[in-house]
């Protein structure tokens, strides 16, 4: 019973969007969860029939998000974002961000399918090449103790719009899946989910392209030792030689990122933190001109003061219906860390989803540079 209450509290913190233990890394918000916690969140989403859009950014996700705004925003507006890639974990460790474990989408799915439960999780496979989705469904029903396939559909090579026709959405909903596995290619898959998530009567939705091939036994996953060493990409190339170009481009981009962003950030944030004040002051002004709410942040917004910032964000969200405009005054802000940036990203995403407006102003040149090195300046400073 104690274990169940713990899982329910964890899931509740995730549906209260700004209360998520979230960190900004390489421009994206990552949830600080271990693999077993992510499994619990998914289980509870299904049990309570609450919607959970799961995104699993790896290095390729991050690379593509830099040049595609809609792809970037699909991660921002996700309900759970986990680090699926050792380069992401290595970067987090270099910057002192507590993302301790890789949470691979394929591993999450494997754990869920092997976890015996009273009522199996119903799964719908959408996408994949040829008959991959149907093969995955057949294998899942043959081998899984914790899941059962309720449907499979390959929509072909059409556009997102053609794959979003009412007949397709109705077919998925009629199967009543708990978990919808999308495999359309990362960009198209994330876009398709964003376009249809409100019309889909599914608890958990995620683009897990490799899962369809792994479950269908079309491709073998790398041995666990290779995964832990961060060499799964080598195994993937051996299995799918055409991937070599993608991994080369991603690798070169990662080296460039380390030199131009990550290493300068590691040095710069230490320099600023030594000079920054130790405490934080947060005030909520409900009488801001234009009927909006103003949040005034002074001092250093760091992990130790994160609870106060999250509490203030929740209070603002409670007032959102009466005040559709939120302004964050940073004129007295000395320093802001990855945790506070992650919280502000979630706050802006939630306000936008509710039809409100978000503005960040008064930031000093050093805070602007810090945000630029974190890769969040364009999203947070955009009016």
N-to-C SSE string, H for helix and E for strand? HEEHEHHEHHEHEHEHEHHHHEEHEHEHH
The residue ranges in which pLDDT falls below 50 over 5 or more consecutive positions are: 1-15
Assembly of the depicted chains: single chain
Strand content: 15-25%
Structural class determined from secondary elements: alpha/beta
Strand order of the largest sheet: 4-3-8-7-5-6
User: Number of domains in the coordinates?
Assistant: 2
- Cα Rg: 21 Å
Can you tell me the overall shape?
globular
Classify the helix fraction into a percent range. Answer: 40-55%
Compute the average pLDDT. 85
The largest sheet, given as strand count, sense and whether it forms a barrel, is: 6 strands, parallel
In DSSP terms (H or I, runs of 4 or more residues), the helix count works out at: 17
- End-to-end separation in angstroms reads 47 Å
The count of DSSP E runs of length 2 or more, i.e. the number of strands, is 12
């Amino acid at each position: 019973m104690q274990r169940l209450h713990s899982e329910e509290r964890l899931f509740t913190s995730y549906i209260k969007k700004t209360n998520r233990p979230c960190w900004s890394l390489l421009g994206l918000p990552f949830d600080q969860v271990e693999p077993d916690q992510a499994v619990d969140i998914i289980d509870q989403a299904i049990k309570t029939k609450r919607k959970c859009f799961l995104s699993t950014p790896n290095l390729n996700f991050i690379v593509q998000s830099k040049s595609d705004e809609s792809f970037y925003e699909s991660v921002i507006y996700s309900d759970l974002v986990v680090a699926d890639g050792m380069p992401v974990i290595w970067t987090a460790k270099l910057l002192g961000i507590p993302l301790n474990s890789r949470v691979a989408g394929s591993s999450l799915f494997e754990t869920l399918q092997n976890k015996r439960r009273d009522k199996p999780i119903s799964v719908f496979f959408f996408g994949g090449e040829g008959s991959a989705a149907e093969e995955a469904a057949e294998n899942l029903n043959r081998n899984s103790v914790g899941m059962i396939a309720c449907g499979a559909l390959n929509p072909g090579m059409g556009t997102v719009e053609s794959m979003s026709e009412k007949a397709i959405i109705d077919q998925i909903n009629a199967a009543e899946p708990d978990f919808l596995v999308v495999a359309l290619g990362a960009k198209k898959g994330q876009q398709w989910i964003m376009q249809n998530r409100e019309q889909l009567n599914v608890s958990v939705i995620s683009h897990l392209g490799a899962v369809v091939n792994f479950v269908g036994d079309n491709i073998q996953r790398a041995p666990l030792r290779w995964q832990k060493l961060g060499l799964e990409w080598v195994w993937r190339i051996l299995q799918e030689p055409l991937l070599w170009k993608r991994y080369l481009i991603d690798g070169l981009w990662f080296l460039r990122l380390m030199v131009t962003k990550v290493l300068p950030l590691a040095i710069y944030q230490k320099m600023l933190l030594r000079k920054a004040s130790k405490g934080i002051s947060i005030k909520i002004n409900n009488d801001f001109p234009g009927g909006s709410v103003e949040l005034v942040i002074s001092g250093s917004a760091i992990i130790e003061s994160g609870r106060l910032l999250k509490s203030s964000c929740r209070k603002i969200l409670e007032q959102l219906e009466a005040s559709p405009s939120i302004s964050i005054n940073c004129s007295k802000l000395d320093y802001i860390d990855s945790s506070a940036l992650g919280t502000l990203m979630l706050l802006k995403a939630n306000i936008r989803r509710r039809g409100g407006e978000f503005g960040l102003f008064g930031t000093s040149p050093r805070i602007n540079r810090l945000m630029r090195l974190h890769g969040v300046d364009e999203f947070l400073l955009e009016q």
